[in-house]
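Can't paste images in this forum, so I'm doing it all in text. The chain is below; anyone willing to post the predicted structure tokens underneath?
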Amino acid sequence: MIGYYILAGIIFLVSMYVSNKLKSKFKKYSQTRLQNGMSGKEIAEKMLSDNGITDVQVISVAGQLTDHYNPATKTVNLSEPVYEQRNAAAAAVAAHECGHAVQHATAYSWLKLRSAIVPAVGISSKLSNFVIMAGLILSVSGSLIGNTIFLVGIILFAMTTVFAFITLPVEFDASKRALVWLETNNMVTKEEHAGAKDALKWAARTYVVAALGSLATLLYFISIFLGRR
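Text version of the structure:
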């Protein structure tokens, strides 16, 4: 158990470091104004057009780092700074989210898999901690059904862990598509491309840390279950 807490502490510190680094990178590259003068919205619309996608709308949403692509509504949702600003960070994020739209349009296998399990993961993420806690309490009190409930909770949590790892290739591929498009279509200079690449690299690392944290917690729960058998 001590080993888990040490590992959890390390993952937490790494997560905080990556998160702060991501924010600083986006702040830095928000100062790198695009020579082409295009806003994030215009970058997104051009990338969609260049990929023959005409049924996806680019819209603005409140907040920072709230950017995402919604396959259900076919919308590229850009945070207000990304939507309006004309810098390397905005270009990187806008193109990345359009990368997801291209994945959707081309039936990218990992995105299809992630989308297929979203409903189940939504339910499991809401129930897993409650079920795990109930199982632990019942098993401590001597109830025979406690371990069974605990196991069900572990299975539910495992679904969220699997989802976190399935997300990795989806995110890395979207960034790759974004950077290739930005470069091959001469949308950015070499300096701007380097900034976009650096920003997306740190964004991807947040998903890696989250997946590893979820895996560590899952293994911890499994070790508790095996120790109670």
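Helices lie at 2-29, 40-50, 80-84, 88-105, 109-140, 146-184, 190-228. The longest helix spans residues 146-184.
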